[in-house]
């Protein structure tokens, strides 16, 4: 999906990945993350967001909840992370990374509630009054007041399967009265998901139908007397979408794929952000005129297209790659040509590393010509002391 853009805009990452594989430093099924480019992208986004008064919470699930990158992002001025689920939140707490938003898209379960609330996240996203009561009790035990982000999901909202939940806007007046009566929680803002998405037809990022629900909810909140609420508009956050967040009265965004220059917008147009990761595999075997490389990093919505196979950019060949169907385990990816066993295979497709079984290599100094492997990590953000 992104290989051509990677060759065009970040050839140093490709050369680095070839060399790390040739030296035997990386096993197949490893994502190489270019720390220099991620931080460049993040700085550009933050500069744009600051100019519009929009706050950004970094989202790292796409690149494996990586705590090293999280700490580096905080050094350049990001306040904290959005944790898509409670396990990610616990990982960040253990690694000293501040939580800016937790509970969206997955609510905090009871067994993790005290630990997460005691970390004093800026916001906890909620889908139900029952969960609000749980948070209120945990905040009471922690002697704090927790700000809530109320997720809005109206009948005309655009929701993904497996991500259903929230409050209808016509429930809000009663909900606000109930929350106001509690001592250890308060309404801190509103959120919807997804708020923005890339339109292939228009070749730009546009508001989704969920913005209608947000506008209804925002007006009700204002009529209730709430001021200075956080209007959280996540999805497709990048330099190009920040003006739109502001135009839609948004006060916060959550860059994930924007950090690595891998939103659909980045495939179809020239954007400020540089593509910042590559997937490393190796030809395993050949059979009936085709080659097969090691798998493990397949994300079903990844849109694999091409692979670069060889020892370096000068000698590498481009070939088509096909992932297994969704009923099968991705033990191997199919390459359409017969290629030498043992050759390095590089791919760049959309991923969600926290859902796969790959390893993650963090490399700095790629852009300055002095690459340094800073560490190997599991897809869940755990540092590995060995490369398997």
Q: What would your notes on this structure say?
A:
- Strand 12 and strand 13 form a beta hairpin.
- The protein is built from 11 helices and 20 strands.
- The strands form 4 sheets. The chain has a 6-stranded antiparallel β-barrel with strand order 12-13-16-15-14-17. The chain has a 6-stranded parallel beta sheet with strand order 3-4-5-6-7-10.
- The chain is elongated, with a radius of gyration of 22 Å.
- It folds into 2 domains: 137 residues, Lyase, Ornithine Decarboxylase, Chain A, domain 1 (Beta Barrel); 227 residues, Alanine racemase (TIM Barrel), CATH 3.20.20.
- 29% of the residues lie in helices and 24% in strands.
- With 388 residues, the protein is α/β, with parallel strands linked by helices.
| Rounded Rg | 22 Å
Sheet bearing the most strands, described?
6 strands, antiparallel, barrel
* Average pLDDT reading: 96
- Tally of DSSP helical segments: 11
Question: How far is the N terminus from the C terminus?
Answer: 27 Å
List unreliable stretches of 5+ residues.
none
Helix content: 25-40%
CATH class of the largest domain: Alpha Beta
Named CATH architecture of the largest domain:
Alpha-Beta Barrel
Overall tally of structural domains? 2
Structural class: alpha/beta
Strand order in the largest sheet: 12-13-16-15-14-17
Give the beta-strand count. 20
Q: Considering the protein shown, what is the CATH homologous superfamily of the largest domain? A: Alanine racemase
Query: Quick one: overall form?
Result: elongated
Strand content: 15-25%
From the 3D structure, determine the CATH topology of the largest domain.
TIM Barrel
């Amino acid at each position: 999906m992104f290989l051509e853009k990677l060759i065009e805009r970040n050839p140093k990452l490709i050369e680095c990945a070839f060399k790390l594989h040739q030296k035997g430093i990386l096993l197949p099924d490893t994502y190489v993350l270019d720390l220099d480019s991620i931080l460049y992208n993040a700085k550009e986004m933050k500069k744009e967001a600051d100019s519009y008064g929009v706050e950004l919470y970094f989202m790292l699930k796409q690149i494996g909840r990586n705590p090293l990158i999280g700490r580096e992002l905080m050094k350049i001025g990001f306040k904290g992370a959005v944790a898509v689920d409670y396990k990610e939140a616990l990982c960040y707490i253990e690694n000293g990374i501040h939580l800016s938003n937790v509970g969206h898209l997955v609510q905090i379960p009871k067994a993790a509630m005290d630990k997460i609330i005691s970390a004093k996240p800026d916001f906890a996203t909620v889908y139900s009054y029952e969960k609000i009561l749980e948070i209120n009790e945990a905040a009471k035990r922690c002697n704090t007041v927790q700000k809530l982000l109320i997720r809005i999901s109206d009948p005309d909202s655009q929701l993904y399967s497996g991500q259903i939940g929230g409050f209808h806007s016509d429930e809000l007046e009663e909900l606000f009265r109930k929350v106001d009566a509690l001592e250890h929680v308060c309404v801190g803002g509103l959120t919807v998901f997804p708020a923005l998405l890339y339109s292939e037809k228009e070749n730009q990022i546009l508001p989704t139908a969920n913005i209608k629900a947000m506008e209804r909810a925002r007006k009700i909140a204002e009529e209730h007397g709430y001021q200075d609420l956080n209007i959280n508009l996540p999805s497709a956050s990048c330099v190009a979408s920040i003006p739109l967040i502001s135009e839609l009265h948004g006060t916060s965004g959550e860059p994930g794929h924007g950090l690595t220059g891998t939103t659909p917008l980045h495939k179809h147009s020239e954007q400020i952000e540089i593509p910042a990761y590559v997937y490393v595999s190796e030809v395993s075997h050949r059979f009936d005129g085709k080659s097969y490389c090691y798998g493990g990093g397949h994300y079903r919505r990844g849109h694999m297209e091409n692979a670069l196979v060889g020892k370096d950019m000068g000698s590498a060949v481009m070939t088509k790659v096909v992932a297994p169907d969704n009923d099968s385990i991705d033990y191997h990816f199919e390459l359409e040509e017969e290629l030498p066993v043992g050759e390095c295979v590089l791919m760049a497709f959309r991923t969600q590393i926290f859902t796969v079984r790959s390893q993650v290599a963090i490399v700095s100094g790629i852009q300055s010509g002095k690459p340094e492997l800073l560490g190997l990590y599991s897809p869940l953000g755990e540092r590995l002391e060995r490369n398997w």
